[in-house]
């Protein structure tokens, strides 16, 4: 799946994904109305997401759907998650399920079935939340990752393992120094490289990628050097303070190597002065095009 | 919530919880029938769980519901998760949602709303998957934990942070030595102690607990010594190879300090020779009583 994503990035010349972290409060007031139930909120969120997807699907290659923003609306929210990923895939977008799942082997197997594989019920093979890529947390080591790798091999999928996260206190554990002279995030990076070494595609990048925050350029530069075959999912651009200048270290000389996420910066663009007079979905598209320009100015062409 | 749980452990004299990791294949064949849809499987899983809960609710203080086993049955599975936690709480059981959630602060806030707090929709405050306790992963540091701590303070809840997990490759990262002479799992333990230091209840244990696997007695002993105020959620007993002798190091001189999970050993007890002739729920109850005897033989009385 990593080759397909990179193909799209080159075609559209935009290594950006829209984060559908759709909190109900992000919706325009007239759309929220007097909704006061999970079902009502979920329905409106799907409508909002569909309009965003329709409006951006030819200018971005992917969406990242943050499941926490759907779990908080209970079963109805999970249905909105399902409808959103289904619609985005039907529109040709690569869907990254941002779930950061992690558990022991047998349980990680259930998570992999849920998002990347399929679930057997009686004689039927069913898909719970069919996604192309999934974020995972590697704290439990390889047996918690292997079920995902099996589905990657069998079903053309990808994962991104948390290495250096974008949040302010990420260094509390991740930037501690090990006795071997490496930082924990570097060690996690080394594990991720190892886990993905047999899954490298035509552009030289593995199906086992890494989450590397745009807000930590020094660490990102070290990781890019250390992990030349690992594709980065880069959160933290925009609302969290990461800039194109800060994250350009994640890209190789061809302008490849990462996909940059923006969530609130796109979904809530319509609230900004610079996009006034536009609908929320027109503003989202304009913000995607501005983000592309910003990334191009910092990085240049992408793989061309 | 930790004091309520310990009260129940002392009352019932059983520091055990039943893991409702209910894979559809665990159900008796005649119950599965020719079910081949998510909705059908979900309905049967709820029926199975309710019968287990009815049968064990006076001999165990808590259930741990592993969400991966519900996510794999899509939205219908999440509804089964909801029905299960609702039923268990109505029966007086403490519900531990085993979700190992983790993310940056704003997103961790959504997860906390989903499981411990409530979600605002318009003027309504709604509960998505109301649980008493939640497992979380601390790789992102404190700002990914703080939203849970806020709900703990406001709503009498608890969390368990992964420290030393029960799986075979847990040492791949967790047992690396830091430059400061501590193992990573000990450092995570130190962070967990710090995060919970203002939330210590009447038994001397904090609302911020730790997941410490029964399968690693040496590490568990070090952590018990290092973290005298941290309550342990102890997976790995039974099917994963952990024994009462191995995990007794998690308990203090009063016989308090942990709750031991068993999943397949209880849910699938009916398949074992020793419980033949029993229904699955009778076998589950018998297995809970056997587990209590086993823990009592190794540890003694619990807080009495």
Characteristics of this structure?
homodimer; 304 residues; alpha/beta; TIM Barrel; two-stranded antiparallel sheet; 13 helices; 43% helix; globular
Structure characterization notes:
The structure is a homodimer of 304-residue chains. In chain A, the strands form two sheets. An eight-stranded parallel barrel of chain A has the order 1-2-3-6-7-8-9-10, surrounded by seven helices. The first copy, chain A, has one domain: TIM Barrel. Helix content of chain A is 43%, strand content 15%. Chain A is of the alpha/beta class and 304 residues long. The mean pLDDT of chain A is 97. In chain A, helix 3 crosses helix 13 and helix 9 packs parallel to helix 10. The interface between A and B is large, with 75 and 75 residues.
Model regions low in confidence, pLDDT < 50 over at least 5 residues of chain A: none
- Number of extended strands of chain A: 10
How much is the radius of gyration of chain A in Å? 19 Å
Q: Globular, elongated, flat, extended or rod-shaped: what is the shape of chain A?
A: globular
From the coordinates shown, what is the CATH architecture of chain A? Alpha-Beta Barrel
Q: What is the H-and-E element order of chain A?
A: HEHHEHHEHEEEHEHHEHEHEHH
Interface with most residues: A-B, 75 and 75 residues
CATH superfamily of chain A: Aldolase class I
Main sheet attributes: strand count, strand direction, barrel closure of chain A: 8 strands, parallel, barrel
Name the structural class of chain A: alpha/beta
How many helices of chain A in DSSP terms? 13
Terminal-residue CA separation of chain A: 20 Å
CATH topology group of chain A? TIM Barrel
The CATH class of chain A is identified as: Alpha Beta
| Major β-sheet strand ordering of chain A | 1-2-3-6-7-8-9-10
